[in-house]
Design brief:
OB fold (Dihydrolipoamide Acetyltransferase, E2P); Ribosomal_bL27; 188 residues; alpha+beta; 4-stranded mixed beta sheet; 25% strand
């Protein structure tokens, strides 16, 4: 029989040559039962698989690229003392780490958005922060700035309560004591 013929089904493919494919020796020979094929470094080609779409109605790219960034957490506009507009994003979160307070709504993806124009304020402890928006009308008539990003009332009112043991509410303690000494506090 002349020319090329396929190997017998029972015959294993053999490699001959020096040890180690392409490392410290020549390229291996790949032999079949009837003909030896000499390997060469220059004549080889490789098929490189890049990321591509799967066929047959697949919609995702099934490659190994990292996912797009999601930018979770407090937005720049959601920081305490920031001026916000209606509908502006305050917090983007997974689950409920920050809670919606007055004039703030929680969306279906748990993000928090402002419902009114105003100043963002926070209260609460870590993992239980409540984010609320103080409207501009209230800020201009009844509030003063305690520091560069915290609002405080100009005067104490009974609805503010009488527990002032932490944070910005400590400033209210002095106002509360003055109010209890005044005529309005004595009548209440």
């Amino acid at each position: 029989m002349f020319g090329w013929a396929p190997a017998n089904l029972g015959a294993p493919a053999k490699t001959s040559g020096t040890s180690g494919a392409l490392v410290g020796g020549s390229a291996p020979r790949i032999c079949s039962a009837t003909r030896a094929v000499e390997g060469s470094l220059a004549g080889r080609s490789a098929l490189v698989m890049h990321e591509h779409k799967k066929a047959a109605s697949s919609t995702k790219i099934h490659g190994s690229a990292p996912p797009n960034p999601k930018f979770w957490g407090v937005a720049k506009s959601g920081l305490q003392g920031s001026a916000v507009k209606n509908g502006q994003l305050l917090v983007k979160q997974k689950g409920m780490n920050w809670y919606n307070g007055a004039n703030v709504t929680r969306c279906s993806d748990y993000s928090l958005r402002a419902l009114q124009d105003g100043i963002v304020q926070w209260r609460g402890s870590y993992k239980h922060k409540e984010v609320y928006v103080v409207p501009w009308g209230y800020v201009r008539t009844k509030c003063v700035w305690k520091n560069c990003n915290t609002l405080a009332p100009k005067a104490y009112e009974p609805w503010m309560g009488d527990k002032f043991n932490y944070g910005k509410r400590h400033m209210l303690f002095g106002m509360y004591q003055e109010w209890t000494q005044s005529d309005a506090g004595q009548e209440h």
